[in-house]
Amino acid sequence: MPESIPLYIPSDQDPESISESILNDIRSTDFLNEITSGEESPQETGLWNLVQPVLSSSSSSSLTLSQFSNPSNLLHHALQNLRQETDQDGRKRWNLNGLILVDQTSLQGDGSLLVLEVDLQKGEIKDQLRCARRSVLEVISNISISNMSLDEYRNMCGGAEVFDSGQ
Amino acid sequence: MLNKTSLLLAICLLAAVSVVRSATVTFDCAKVPNICSNDCYAIQCKGKPTTLHRDSENSSLHRTQNACKSPNRCSGNPDDSNSCDEYPFASSQEGGAGAVTRCVPAHENSVQGGTLSSFYSANSIVNGDAYTVAFTSTAGLQYCSSSCTNTGNELIRKDDHLQSRPNFTQYNRREFLTDEGHVITMFERVTEPRSLDSLIGTKTWLAHEEREVTIVASKD
Predict the structure, then answer these.
(1) Which domain of life is it from (chain A) (predicted)?
(2) So what's the ipTM on this one?
């Protein structure tokens, strides 16, 4: 199984149903058609399963919605609990160059998700940007390999609060 | 004694497997012409390697070490050059200091990143795995032919540029055909003539179509 980017969902918000709904929104992006030039179905791309939910209630520490207001909590959790996780072949399961958070705004506001860019060497958050759900795959696929920074996406949308490539 | 021999044999087999796992990824220069130009310039004009090894753990560090800088040096440019591209890729062991950079359209860079990320996932390229970079639709791209005259768009950090000279590798441009008629451009070390012929009969990943085709013949 290739490395995945964690999608953090609060443990007190029916995480399993939320994760299904959000993953559907994330995967509805036109970006998948763009990178295949329409030659393959979106499900066949390597990005289809790039984002995977972390149901924090099943991890060693449970994180509630109120704790999601401080993204450092999530980074700490990821570095403590996900960094060494491996798949059955002994390969790293998670790519922690980026994290995606389902926070208050995601659930009760405009639905956007908070994307964190992580400096793994320093173990700290480098930058953060809200992204429309349909734009998350475009952004996180680039953050995961450090091909582009969140700052470049912020510039792309003219400094808008939410990056939405569909606008 | 037998155990030692078995262990040595196992290590040799593992080493052989890791060499064989090298994949070829082909970028469509009709989709990402500016990025292809940068990649070709880096390889053909600055001797950067065509075989890279994935390293996502240090990609963020590599990005800060090259001439893209943080915040990126291209921000504030017009839309046709507002994002910074680098070769070798930041997500490779060969990336970082000394990478060749160019200001490219942000959307083009974003699509390129998506295809590279998808290539890694779809082909199970994990940290340490090798892959070789190739191109298609290179017609009309200055640096993918034979010209190395820097028109001012290409930039390497000055100190790294000087340090990289002793390791300069020269390449010959070669073309191959796929079973579907694609013309694939690759760069072969001048010290290893015909070495890329070994790729005939193997598959290459068309990055912008997310599927494999087979390299069937050399065009030259």
Answers:
(1) Eukaryota
(2) 0.94
Could you tell me whether strands B183-189 and B130-136 are parallel, antiparallel, or unpaired per DSSP bridges? antiparallel
B 183-212 residues with CB below 8 A of A? 206, 208-211
pLDDT over 50 at B171, yes or no: yes
Farthest-apart Cα atoms in chain A, separation? 43
Residue B9 lies in a domain: no
Rounded Cα distance between A68 and A64, Å, is 7
Higher-pLDDT residue of B9 and B169 is: B169
Q: β-pairing, B154-155 with B100-104? A: antiparallel
Return all residues near A27 (Cβ < 8 A) that are at least 6 apart: A42, A48, A137
User: Considering the entire predicted model, what is its pTM?
Assistant: 0.90
Which residue range is the domain that position B41 belongs to?
A: 21-218
Using alpha carbons, list the distances in angstroms from residue B165 to A30, B11, B45, B85, B98.
43, 35, 11, 21, 10
Does the CB of B46 have a partner CB in chain A at under 8 Å? no
Contact residues, B window 4-43, toward A, CB-based 8 Å cutoff: 28, 31
pLDDT grade, residue B10 (50/70/90)? low
Strand partners, B17: none
Looking at the 3D structure of chain B, how many domains does it have?
1
Residue B134 in domain: yes
Which positions of chain A have pLDDT values less than 70? Answer: 56-61, 167
A79 contact partners, CB below 8 Å, separation of at least 6: A96, A123
B47-71 pLDDT, tens digit each: 999 999 999 999 999 998 888 876 7
Instruction: Tell whether B15 is covered by a domain.
Output: no
3-state secondary structure of A7: strand
User: CATH assignment of A5-163?
Assistant: 3.40.50
What's the CA gap between A31 and A47, in Å, rounded? 10
The DSSP symbol for A158 reads: T
B3 within some domain = no
Q: How many residues does chain B have?
A: 220
- Residue length of chain A: 167
Does the beta-carbon distance from B208 to A37 stay under 8 Å? yes
Q: Which residues of B touch A146 (CB under 8 A)?
A: 56, 59-60, 62-63, 90-91
Q: What pLDDT, on the 0 to 100 scale, is given for residue A84?
A: 86
The Cα A47–Cα A51 span in angstroms is 8
